Amino acid sequence: MSFLTLTGIQKSYGASKVVKDFDLSVDRGELVTFLGPSGCGKTTTLRMIAGFETPTEGSIRINGKDVTSLRANKRAIGMVFQAYALFPNMTVAQNIGFGLKVAGKPAAEIKLRVDEMLAMIKLPQLADRYPYQLSGGQQQRVSLARALAPSPQILLLDEPLSALDARIRVSLREEIRALQRSLGITTIFVTHDQEEALSMSDRVVVMNEGAIEQVGTPSEIYNAPRTRFVASFVGTLNLIDGKIVDASVGAIDIDGQRATTRRKLNGAKPGDILAMALRPEALRLGAGDADRNTLAGVIEDVSFLGAVVRVRVRLERAAIIVDTFNSGADDLPARGASVAVNFGRDDLIPLLAH
Amino acid sequence: MKGGKFGAWLAVFVGVAYFLAPLVATFEFSLRMRRGEYSFDAYRVVFASGAFQASFLYSTVLAVVTIFVGILIVVPTAYWVQLRLPRLRGIVEFTTLLPLVIPAIVLVFGYIKLYGSSSILPLTSTSLGADALLMFGYVGLGLPYMYRSVETALRSIDVRTLTEAAESQGAGVFTILFHVILPNIRSGILSGAFLTFAIVIGEFTFASLLDRPAFGPYLQLIGASRAYEPSALAIMAFALTWACMGLIQLFGGGPRTSAGKR
Any idea what DSSP says for residue A134? Predict the structure, then answer.
């Protein structure tokens, strides 16, 4: 049975519907990420789980109990905010112990738990510091410890890494994931950063304009995006129009050149134009074997990105990006040169219309 | 350039002289009670006066109660407006400014009319009732200062996020207000409190028309009947007000917040 269930959630502010028909089941111990651009409704949905917003319609159940109308302070959730939200008047230890103090735990028990949490976030030496004396990364660690100290049922993380610099962001996300795994706590993570979502999550919920576009494992989301939005939001992508030649064998016409996909074309008829996704890293320069697709074009641009060399190839109307590993060779492909590009039949992904 | 600098210094000098000359003259005059030499006799007489002690104590106690009641009314109101009713901010701000626009004498006549001996709630009929009426009047007079100080302090912290962080930790509204919000707007509350104290301690109109034994009417009485003591009292009132201002500066640093909001 699911630990957290959201059923038919809708949220409107006046005439504006910000979350639409949101259904999701999260298992105990799972880390699910809500991924989407600003204003897609991910934070609003998280806030409804936290109890800071009430759904206009639908229900939220935690561990089988309907909490839709339950106040935030009765839900036993732990929340980490983007802006840390540590209490400025309290020391690190007091911040971490706040929830336990509110719950009326004895002082000795609070101290024990605070020490345990400080050891967990590897900051025992900072117990008596005030938040303004800490760096951003330290503050967010303390915020995490504070959220976890009362042993909440669910941990909610609202873009907790957005305010940190890139290096700390990467190390902290690894720490958060390791902690979440070791504690086995059901966690909802909100982010607009696809790399964070893919690297940390058991499952990713991609949202757009208040609705779920796709739910799946990071691999499913990346390798088998269902919609144009998911495909374009997660990773760099080539979006090209393909004209259906024969749906039964997956034959497609791309800019006058023939290609084949092994993926289902969902009842498309000959002559239909379908949006197709092609990951840049799935493409290789040069003609491919007979079981691979090969398209001919002209090199329009070459960008050296360090580990990757990005080549833009113009077909006729469409241009596609090819990412190749930097092999160390000095001679980069020349602009204006004719080139063949090949890719596997599984790599050409037909997308749903919306 | 040199001329501009000289002009600036001249302006400062004239300004300082304009404010300090009467003060220095008053102080000098307050020291001339004893013929032929300077002394603090006027101050000694004032301090020894039973009427001074009683009226000063009365006004001080009234100021403290006014501050306490003012905080109880203003802090939750400003917090709630900031958190849940931001659209009402304009109306609330306008309302809190009214005591600055409506003359004190109009307010106090309104009070006497509403709470006089022939009204449903005849507060002026008893000493305690009149004291309470005076105190509530002072809460109103101090409202523009108290509300503004508290509101500014609230704006300097992330009220919504701190409230939600505390709620997610299981805290109820009173815990949030007294353990999270209040300590972080202490500077604003203290500023409002000192300003209220400075207003209440020398207020004349309300106290006089409600016939209360406050420090303001005492100052007026002494001013009308003595020579040197009023100057001594004026200097003391200045010192008290400046002490309040100094304390505002001292405690006006505000909290240092983790969210970077000041």
Answer: S
Instruction: Report the percentage of chain A scoring pLDDT > 70.
Output: 99
Q: Do B165 and A79 touch (CB under 8 A)?
A: yes
Note which residues in 76-115 of chain A have CB less than 8 A from chain B. 76-79, 81, 83-89, 98-99, 102-103
Considering the segment(s) B42-251 as one domain, its CATH architecture is Orthogonal Bundle (1.10)
Sheet with A57-62, strands from edge to edge, namely A16-26, A4-13, A57-62, A65-66
Q: How far apart are CA A195 and CA B122, in angstroms?
A: 71
For the beta sheet containing A238-246, the strands, ordered from the edge strand earlier in sequence to the opposite edge, are A257-260, A251-254, A238-246, A273-278, A349-350
**Topology of the domain covering A4-231:** Rossmann fold (3.40.50)
Out of A98, A132, A156, the one facing B169 most closely (by C-beta) is A98
Measured between alpha carbons, how far apart are the two ends of chain A, in Å?
A: 32
The answer to whether B168 contacts A89, with C-beta atoms less than 8 Å apart, is: no
Instruction: Answer whether A73 touches B (CB < 8 Å).
Output: yes
Integer Cα distance of B42 and B217 in angstroms: 19
Task: For chain B, count helices (H), then strands (E).
Answer: 13, 0
Per residue in B95-115, pLDDT (tens digit) is 999 998 999 899 999 988 899
Reported as half-sphere exposure (CB side, CA atoms, 13 A), residue A293 has a value of 22
* 8 A C-beta contact, residue A292 and residue A345: yes
Q: Which two tokens stand for residue B223?
A: 């001013």
| C-alpha to C-alpha distance for A276 and A260, rounded to whole angstroms | 11
List, in sequence order, every residue forming a beta bridge with A339; answer none if it has no partner. Answer: A297
Residue with tokens 């204006």, as numbered in its chain:
A336
Please, what are the averages of pLDDT over each run of 10 residues along chain B (262 residues)?
A: 81 93 92 89 90 92 95 94 91 92 90 87 89 94 93 92 95 93 91 90 91 90 86 87 80 53 42
Task: Report the percentage of chain A scoring pLDDT > 90.
Answer: 70
Predicted confidence band of residue A341 (pLDDT cuts 50, 70, 90): very high
Is B183–A89 a contact, with Cβ atoms under 8 angstroms apart?
yes
CB contact under 8 A, B171 and A102: yes
Distance of alpha carbon A269 from its chain centroid, rounded? 34
Residues of chain A with CATH 2.40.50.100: 236-283+292-350
Give the span between the Cα atoms of A307 and B93, in whole angstroms: 59
Mean pLDDT of chain A: 92
Q: Are A18 and A172 in contact (CB under 8 A)?
A: no
Q: Which fold has domain A236-283+292-350?
A: OB fold (Dihydrolipoamide Acetyltransferase, E2P) (2.40.50)
The CA R_g of chain A, rounded to the nearest whole Å, is 24
Are the Cβ atoms of A131 and B258 closer than 8 angstroms?
yes
Structure tokens of B133? 């009426």
CA A149 – CA A121 distance, rounded (Å): 11
Note whether ipTM > 0.95 here: no
Question: What are the structural domain ranges in chain B?
Answer: 1-30, 42-251
Residue A107 sits at φ, ψ, to 5 deg, of -55, -40
Q: Which of A48, A89, A187 to mutate to test the interface with B (most CBs of B within 10 A)?
A: A89
